[in-house]
Amino acid sequence: MYDVGIIGGGVAGLSAGMYAGRMKLSAVILTELRGGTITTTNEIRNWPGISDIDGVGFAKKLEEHAKEYDVEIKDTSVSEIKKKDEGFEIITPSSSYEAKTLIIATGTDYRKLGIPGEKEYANRGVHYCALCDGAFYKDKTIAVVGGSDSAAKEALLLTQWAKKIYIIYRKEKIRAEPVNLEKVEKNDKIEVINNTNITEIKGTDEGVNKVVLDKEYNGSSELELDAVFVEIGRVPKSEIAKNLGVELNDKGEIKTDKGAKTNIEGIYAAGDVTDAEFKQAIISSAEGVLAAYSAYEYLEKKK
């Protein structure tokens, strides 16, 4: 039986694993994607002490650091978690693991538009990661849906390949950080369409070729393009936590206290799946550390 079972191998999970190992706790990290969603980030410029690094390289450094300690990493999804008299049983498609404590760091999934054509053209012109799929659209016309800083960064990244990028946003003005907003406004490839929604995505057997707008743009309610990149936020992957009786807020995020503790003894949570207001890699890392320390304290008191 492991001291700590960590569900999720992103920034929060790897940080939790590293600190668990430093405190001489045996730990296993179960993850579908080593490094988590940070691996889809083109560049990281807000990690103290590292002025510029790509997401894949950053995740690799976290993984290597965690593996310096007594931490195992298993590449697998988690089907179910059962509460036992002593600890938890973590069930995967091919095996099961027992742990005295649990850290849930499952992160988030991409929020979908929920409109006709989105599902039909998934990976055939509808995408959720510019770094993953942008290179397929060299010299093409693309739309980025969303008005957050993430949407602005996706559009800026896509300028490496596409000849034209529309940012389509339902409100008056995109909400990018000032430095990224300035870059968007100065880039001749990017055009912002505000106060507008996409109501349908259309195409052929070849893929996407146009979208339908809820108001006319340049005299037409249809906009011809080759791909749609959706960046409208994320949905917490908290179903496993919910099934264990962990308390969630109205957004589906796991409620935690300052020590990353949930309402259930022995269960902790960290990263974007929690109710932390500011979703940043450095905060996820700190929460992972807190979760590991709280698990350590809990196990010490039980001795």
Count of helical regions: 7
Give the N-to-C terminal Cα separation: 15 Å
**How is the main sheet built?**
7 strands, mixed
Instruction: List how many beta strands DSSP finds.
Output: 17
Say which CATH homologous superfamily of the largest domain is assigned.
FAD/NAD(P)-binding domain
Number of domains: 2
What structural category characterises the helix and strand content? alpha/beta
Q: What would you report as the Rg, rounded to the nearest angstrom?
A: 21 Å
User: Any idea what the CATH architecture of the largest domain is?
Assistant: 3-Layer(bba) Sandwich
The CATH class of the largest domain is Alpha Beta
Order of helices and strands: EHEHEEEEEEHEHEHEEEEEEHEH
Outline the structure in words:
The chain is α/β, with parallel strands linked by helices. It folds into two domains: 2-110 and 234-302, FAD/NAD(P)-binding domain (3-Layer(bba) Sandwich); 126-230, FAD/NAD(P)-binding domain (3-Layer(bba) Sandwich), CATH 3.50.50. The protein contains seven helices and 17 strands. The chain has helices at 11-22, 55-66, 130-133, 149-158, 178-186, 239-243, 281-302, and strands spanning 2-7, 27-31, 71-75, 80-83, 88-91, 96-104, 108-110, 126-127, 141-145, 164-168, 190-193, 198-204, 207-217, 220-224, 227-230, 234-236, 267-269. Strands 1, 2, 3, 4, 5, 6 and 17 form a seven-stranded mixed sheet that branches. A five-stranded parallel sheet has the order 8-15-9-10-11. Helix 1 links the parallel strand 1 and strand 2. Helix 1 packs parallel to helix 2 (55-66) and helix 1 (11-22) runs parallel beside helix 7. The protein starts with a strand and ends with a helix. The mean pLDDT is 95.
